[in-house]
Amino acid sequence: MAATLKALHSLRVGRHQIPPWYHTLNASIHHTPFLIYRSGFHSSTTASEISQHLTETCVAEPQWTCPIHVPSPSVSLHHARDSPERFDAVVSSRDFLVVPARVAHRLLHYNEVGVKMVGAYPMGKLWNMCYGDEEE
């Protein structure tokens, strides 16, 4: 079954520039905003349908799918809780998030049951995990 996407003109888009915090560069080196496409997917769209759509359109290469195990949907755009410019987004399972490379982020908590995240990256690129340590 094909992914059921909403028309681009009907989407609300949130844009947030994430500044550096200690050893985490965030978007400061490339000035690419963190994007939230609100309700970009219909509620019946599955993670595998989204992965298939990304693969077929060559937009990005899905590399992992992960169920959300954490018990209000919220994601923080800084690992550092003390950051004065920390941005916490409230998101739903229908939202599409574009997190630029090197932007620190983590899931704070989530209410929806059975939700999965799809990690997709530019074609030919691999994901990696950095924690903002000085040696990274």
From TrEMBL:
Source superkingdom: Eukaryota
InterPro entries, per the entry: RmlC_Cupin_sf, YjiB-like
Name of the protein: Cupin type-1 domain-containing protein
Naturally occurring in which organism (per UniProt): Ajellomyces capsulatus
